[in-house]
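Open question from group meeting: does this chain pack into something compact, or does most of it stay loose? Before anyone orders reagents, we agreed to write out a predicted structure and look at it together. Recording both the input and the output here so the notebook holds the full record.
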Amino acid sequence: MLFAKELLLPAHTASAGNYNPKLLQQAIQFLLKDQDNTVSKSEKIYISRQKETARKVINEEEIIACLIEEGFTILECEDFSFEEQVSIFSHARVLVSIHGAGLTNLVFMPTGSCVLELRKEEEPEMYNCYFSLASVFDQRYFYQGCKSDSNLSATLANIYVNLNKLKENLDLIMAT
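Structure tokens returned:
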């Protein structure tokens, strides 16, 4: 049993499933102030899920080859500490990845950066969390609908990325 003389409970800063943009921006600024600048810097990043067992890009080898040609650095976030991820993404101008937690790193990217989310097309439940997050940080958000190999939800399904459409989207991003 635990006894306390005083218990402080913070009030909700936003309604359930949402966040307070001002508090979120302040928290990120706090994390960015002491970043490690010794980690390699790349302006274009693709987050791969090659090591994962679910929610993968089926034709990822083809996609990676295209992205490397476009000057992208390919990362697997689990290979980096939190501090290293903060540093890496604070220098990024373009981020491409499949729907998932790795996209949360967009919060460390500069204002005006671009995010391209690869996600399952025709999903009955559209997950717009990364669009909302990118909006808080004044970033340009794009998404590309991708065919899936199953009827699983967008949070579990593997996807096939149309390479021609990806190239068109990258051209659009780079032109804006």
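Observations to bring back to the group:
The first strand starts at residue 44 and ends at 47.
The mean pLDDT is 89.
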